[in-house]
Amino acid sequence: MKFMGANELRESFISFFESKEHLRMESFPLVPKNDKSLLLINAGMAPLKPYFTGIQKPPKSRVTTCQKCIRTGDIENVGKTSRHGTFFEMLGNFSFGDYFKNEIIPWSWEYVTEVLKLPKDKLYVTIYLEDDEAYEIWTTKTDIDPSRIFRLGKDDNFWEVGTVGPCGPCTEIHYDRGENVAPVTNVEDFVAASDADRIVEFWNLVFIQFDKQEDGSYAPLKNKNIDTGMGLERLAVVVQDVDSIFDVDTICALRNLVCEIAGKEYGKTYQDDVSIRLITDHIRSATFMISDGIMPTNEGRGYVLRRLIRRAARHGRLLGIEGSFLAKLSAEVINGSKAGYPELEEKKEFIFKVLTNEENQFNKTIDQG
Ligand code: GLY
């Protein structure tokens, strides 16, 4: 396995799919366009829904992106665990009625084993229960050991986001982080090892074949499509062989700066670590949201932003930080991510101003209270 920084990983994925004739597209903004079902973009395929349903014509039938995403459903756990976060980058490649299972399965194996050089004896694959076709392709078009393929049901191997929209069965690639352990040989042990975080899923290859309707039925789409999603931070945890997303190179630099500003050492007390991780995560989300034009307000996505900024400011106080500090951290977010998102650098003065205003307003309210 070869060490790669998060920025290097992003580029390696996109370049790999460019070599398979995909069009490289910039990340879409976090604010969804013409999609009332979403407050914020939460998956690589979310801004591409009109291309899957055929409402719009894509610029090319093969596209690859690294999409900025926010998911706040688990916000209460952020900081408390080493794996929850609200901001992530989703690597993806997409086929709009172009290639299908026969191509994506061998390509994904090529990327994982030949480009990333992940050891084959650490990898497992899951497929949807009835998907004999996927099993056939995995076992004839790649050199995976068939005993490392498991079949799982709709909860695990059928992908849909929200209540309506493009969806379908999927196949997932997993990595075994266990050291000096025997490989799992049956589906019960596989599930138990996944629940214990020994085995982690890192790439989801979705065979988009249906458009889920408001009444819960699945309307077949005219075309068969591919939508893959691989969280960059999660992949970096595997490739950099670290324990959590907060130890990934770019995020660790930010975490270290939180510690420096607070005069704290990471890994000393649980309470401080919770605050350090929460601030590290929330400042990433807030920086990207402001760069996409979201302002802190009292409703909708503006309220999500306000909440993220205020939670970060409050945990700064818990760590003993005096005065405003979020702009300084935001500068580090920009430093670590501008290679993939040049808009951050262009808007940095504006981002710092919005953060500091909101932080000062919050501090004033607390001091008065
Ligand atoms: N669209 C596939 C995923 O986000 O996992």
The end-to-end span amounts to 54 Å
SSE order, one letter for each helix or strand: HEHEEHEHEHEEHEEHHHHHHH
Radius of gyration: 21 Å
What level of helicity do the residues show?
40-55%
**From the helix content, strand content and strand pairing, which structural class follows?**
alpha+beta
Shape: globular
Instruction: Tell me how many strands there are.
Output: 9
Low-pLDDT sequence parts? none
| Number of helical stretches of at least 4 residues | 13
* Mean pLDDT rating: 96
Strand content: 15-25%
Largest sheet: 9 strands, mixed
Bound molecules: glycine
Q: Would you mind describing this structure in some detail?
A:
With 369 residues, the chain is α+β, with helices and mostly antiparallel strands. It has 13 helices and nine strands. Strands 1, 2, 3, 4, 5, 6, 7, 8 and 9 form a nine-stranded mixed beta sheet that branches. A hairpin with a 5-residue loop joins strand 8 (199-212) and strand 9. Helix 9 (270-291) runs antiparallel to helix 10 (300-318). The longest helix is centred in the last third of the chain and has 22 residues, at 270-291. The mean pLDDT is 96. The structure holds glycine.
